[in-house]
C-alpha cells in the first residue's frame, strides 16, 4: 500500500513527467468575427483584426510547446454562406466553428475577442459558462497569467451565456483582451509588443490547464494499474 502512495506522490510532484507524447494537447483558437462581421469598431480599428493577430500568435506559441492547434479562421472571413443575414448568418458561422472544434477532437476552445463598455474600462477578462467547472478552471488559469502582465488592470473571471459557451460541448472560454473604446487600451492593442504579451499570457494559461488535465488523466490511469 505504501509504495502505491509513494508512486502517486511522485507523479504529483513531477507534473511534466510521464506524458512525453507526440502532442501535449489539442486546442482550438477562435478569432472572433471576420469578413463582413468586423466586431466592434472604434476610430477605424476593427476588432476582427486584433482578434486574428492575437490568435495567430497564440497558435505559434502553443505549437512550439507541442500543442496541436487549429484556428477557426486564418484570414479575414467568416463561415456564413451567401444568402444568410443577421442572426441567421451569425448562428451559422458559430455552428461551423463549433463543428471544427468537435472534428479536431480538441481539449478546449478559446475564443478571442475585444471588449466594449459604456464606461472607460480597461483590462482583459475571461468568460465561462455558469456551473461548468472545467471551463472555469481554464478561465482561472488564463486570467491568472494575464494578471502577470505589468501594469494591467486585474479584472476577474466572469460567467456568461453566450452562444459559443452554451453550444460547445468541450471546455470553452471567451477571452476579451481589452476595451477597444478605451483610447489608451486601443493604442496598446495596436502595438505588436503588447499583443505579444497578451498572447503569451493566454498561451501560458492554456498550458497550465493542459498540464492539470494531463496530470489528472495520468493519475487516474495509474490508480487503475496499481489497484
UniProtKB/TrEMBL annotation:
MurNAc-LAA domain sequence ranges: 98-207
BP terms from Gene Ontology: peptidoglycan catabolic process
Keywords: Hydrolase
The organism's place on the tree of life at top rank: Bacteria
A single GO molecular function term of this UniProt record: N-acetylmuramoyl-L-alanine amidase activity
One family name in Pfam for this protein: Amidase_3
Cellular component terms per the entry's GO annotation: outer membrane-bounded periplasmic space
Keyword hit for Hydrolase: yes
CDD domains xrefs: MurNAc-LAA
Name of the protein this chain belongs to: N-acetylmuramoyl-L-alanine amidase
Amino acid at each position: 500500500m505504501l509504495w502505491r502512495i509513494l508512486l502517486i506522490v511522485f507523479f504529483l510532484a513531477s507534473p511534466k513527467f510521464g506524458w512525453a507524447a507526440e502532442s501535449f494537447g489539442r486546442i482550438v483558437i477562435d478569432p472572433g468575427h471576420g469578413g463582413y462581421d468586423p466586431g466592434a469598431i472604434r476610430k477605424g480599428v476593427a476588432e476582427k483584426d486584433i482578434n486574428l493577430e492575437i490568435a495567430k500568435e497564440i497558435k505559434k506559441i502553443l505549437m512550439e510547446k507541442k500543442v496541436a492547434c487549429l484556428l477557426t479562421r486564418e484570414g479575414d472571413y467568416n463561415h456564413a454562406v451567401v444568402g444568410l443575414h443577421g442572426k441567421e448568418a451569425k448562428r451559422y458561422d458559430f455552428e461551423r466553428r463549433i463543428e471544427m472544434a468537435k472534428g479536431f477532437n480538441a481539449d478546449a476552445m478559446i475564443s478571442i475577442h475585444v471588449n466594449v463598455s459604456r464606461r472607460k474600462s480597461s483590462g482583459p477578462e475571461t468568460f465561462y459558462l455558469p456551473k461548468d467547472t472545467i471551463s472555469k478552471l481554464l478561465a482561472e488559469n488564463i486570467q491568472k497569467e494575464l494578471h502577470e502582465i505589468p501594469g494591467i488592470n486585474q479584472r476577474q473571471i466572469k460567467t456568461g451565456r453566450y452562444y459559443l459557451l452554451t453550444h460547445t460541448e468541450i471546455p470553452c472560454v471567451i477571452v476579451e483582451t481589452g476595451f477597444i473604446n478605451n483610447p489608451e487600451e486601443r493604442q496598446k492593442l495596436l502595438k505588436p509588443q503588447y499583443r505579444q504579451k497578451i498572447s503569451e499570457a493566454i498561451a501560458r494559461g492554456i498550458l497550465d490547464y493542459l498540464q492539470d488535465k494531463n496530470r489528472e488523466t495520468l493519475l487516474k490511469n495509474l490508480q487503475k494499474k496499481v489497484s
